[in-house]
Write a structure and sequence with these properties.
Layout (H helix, E strand, L loop, with lengths): L2 H20 L6 H25 L5 H24 L5 H23 L8 H22 L4 H8 L2 E2 L2 E2 H27 L1 H5 L3
Antiparallel strand pairs: 1-2
């Protein structure tokens, strides 16, 4: 297994780890979960960069990299609903899009077609990761003492600026998730229209 594929596989492990820590009662569990999620996000960036630069692109990477992203993101959004950090409908939009595109990829694979990630999908993933990190920061910055409160607790109106940033990031992520899903389905419509 080459390095990019190892990084992709590590994202599955990091996803389980940050989920377990989120719901634990260990000290600084929100901060630890944030650090694990950031590590998973960095691995997402690195595996693609390394694969392209070193010409280590494999079918495993083409299929599993987007799947690892989807599992990582959907796990965070669903967990946030369970913790009342995010409206359920936003998680439904994200999970529905990701399941739909995974179904499309499976249909393509059954026809010996490999669908690689597209530009809109990459922007969508960045926006989702940004939103998740923003929510984590909002929920954990007070654990970082006076420095965390000073940097992240400054208020705009009656809320910390991080609250506003997290709200905007959530909306951007949901909108880009919907749009990227629609474009992906439209561009690859021949795959499923032939079977209808």
């Amino acid at each position: 297994m080459n390095l990019p594929n190892k990084l992709t596989a590590s994202r599955f492990v990091l996803t389980v780890a940050f989920l377990a820590v989120m719901f634990s009662e260990v000290p600084y569990h929100k901060t630890i979960a944030l650090a694990l999620f950031v590590a998973a996000g960095i691995s997402d960036f690195l595996d693609g960069q390394i694969a392209r630069r070193r010409r280590l692109v494999t079918n495993f990477g083409i299929l599993m990299d987007p799947l690892a992203d989807k599992i990582m993101v959907c796990t965070a959004f669903i967990a946030f609903v369970g913790l009342n950090w995010l409206p359920a409908w936003m998680a439904v939009v994200v999970v529905a899009r990701e399941l739909t595109i995974t179904g499309l990829r499976l249909l393509a694979a059954s026809k010996s077609v490999v669908l690689a990630a597209e530009r809109y999908g990459k922007h969508k993933t960045v926006s989702q990761i940004t939103a998740i990190i923003a929510i984590f920061v909002l929920q954990s910055y007070y654990q970082w003492g006076d420095l965390g409160i000073w940097v992240f607790g400054g208020r705009i109106g009656n809320q910390p600026w991080t609250w506003w940033f997290a709200k905007i990031a959530q909306w951007v992520a949901v909108i880009l998730t919907f749009i990227s899903g629609w474009f992906y389905l439209w561009r690859n419509r021949a795959l499923y229209l032939d079977d209808m």
